[in-house]
Amino acid sequence: MSGVGPALAAPLLAWYDQGHRDLPWRSRPTPYRVWVSEIMLQQTRVEAVRGYFDRWMQALPDIPSLAAADEGVYMKLWEGLGYYSRVRNLHRAAVEVCAKYGGELPADYDKLLALPGIGEYTAGAIASIAFGLPVPAVDGNVLRVAARLDNEFTPITDAKYKRRVRGQFAALLPEDRPGDLNQALMELGATVCLPNGAPLCGDCPLQHLCLGYHRGNAAVLPLRAAKKARRIEQRTVLLVRCGSLVGIRRRPPRGLLAGLWELPSLEGALPPDAVRQALAARGWRVGELLSLRPAKHIFTHVEWHMTGYYVELDAPPDGLTLVSPAALRADYALPSAFRPFLSVIEEEA
Fold it and tell me: Is 38 one of the annotated active-site residues of the chain?
């Protein structure tokens, strides 16, 4: 880093050694455990991942078990984490690792980078933490730390800036502890050099080196390129009951939530009469129709505003799979967008 250089590693590692968070994947950082944890942590809070990680490791303790798992198993384990392409790529990569590398991740950055779903950051994290290779692992936390240290006003989303930061941190990695320094940088960004104008500079082991702090700019850094506004879609979601069973269906194989199970829905925010008319046109014999509390779900580029209805049918409907509430909880991966509408059946066995 500009004006920082080797002076960064010693105080940062000392701070990390004194009290970093006790995370389950850190206690036994095998290549597989590091890989799964890093994929889970993408766009997900650490506290939310703990339980998912433990359940995953109990069910799929190694790469061969993941490669051999049915889609329903790993999708159910992932249910609620979102961004389901991540878990599909995990499975695809596990199959490839079994075919090419005997079921063990290769201790090679370029080979890791070539696997499905593994980008520069994840490859760097696995290579350095699990294999001790001197490769940087630069995520959003690390980019934020770098921007403040350097008092840098280039947006951290800029590709050239990311490459520059990777090169700078690569030159700082100690040969004996590259994984620890990468984790220390991530830890600093996650717990002290916080986002959204709230850095805890008084707790920072690098305060004496930080140009952003000394020039009074830490709270306004880093800069990000302006995001496009999310598209808002109105949906009418149906909790369909036929006797004791619940109606679900598969989403299309491409697009948002591709191939996942869902509660059926209609386009638009429809009033009750319009819902009855639309379902009658499908040949569904609607008995009771009750309004449910509306809900909202935010995806990366789109926002669903959802009107909900509880629908009782007098006969099994075409186009739906009927399952018990217990089976829905145990066996089917349902995206969290639909969870607000399940409260009326959550206590059913």
Answer: yes
